[in-house]
């Protein structure tokens, strides 16, 4: 099954302007019908979902573009794409570690305040 840009926009949750921008940046290359209208496929839906996941996990658009170029070149780039994803995972894991550290410090401060409030409450009773 294939989809018009409007249908594809609704399915993916991306605006038409964004889809055109992605095409301009060669992140996605939709097929064209006889009337030269964009037609998107199920594979395009999966690809956009992956692009969105990369963006949501903090991969810079420049790196996503590099990945897209490699993807377009085919299976000869599988190792390079895997390495890009491994590096991104490493970066993501570091971000998670930092967030967990921040969470632990906030938990310490919350516990401190709970104890101080309890002391004040106990002293006034």
Topology:
Blueprint: E1 2-3, H1 5-12, H2 16-24, E2 31-32, E3 38-41, H3 42-56, H4 61-73, H5 78-124
Antiparallel strand pairs: 1-3, 2-3
Helix pairs in contact: 4-5
Question: What's the quick description here?
Answer:
By secondary structure, the protein is mainly alpha-helical. The chain has five helices and three strands; from the N terminus they run E-H-H-E-E-H-H-H.
Q: Using only CA atoms, what is the Rg?
A: 23 Å
Per DSSP, what share of the residues sits in E-state strands of 2 or more residues?
A: 5-15%
Question: Can you give the helix content as a percent range?
Answer: over 70%
Query: Low-confidence parts lasting 5 or more residues at pLDDT below 50?
Result: none
CATH class of the largest domain: Mainly Alpha
**Total number of β-strand segments?**
3
Q: Based on helices, strands and strand pairing, what is the structural class?
A: mainly alpha
Please identify, by name, the CATH architecture of the largest domain.
Orthogonal Bundle
Biggest sheet, open or closed, and with what strands and sense? Answer: 3 strands, antiparallel
The name of the CATH topology of the largest domain is Multidrug-efflux Transporter Regulator, Chain: A, Domain 2
Q: Strands across the major sheet, in which order?
A: 1-3-2
Instruction: Give the rounded overall mean pLDDT.
Output: 95
- Give the N-to-C terminal Cα separation: 72 Å
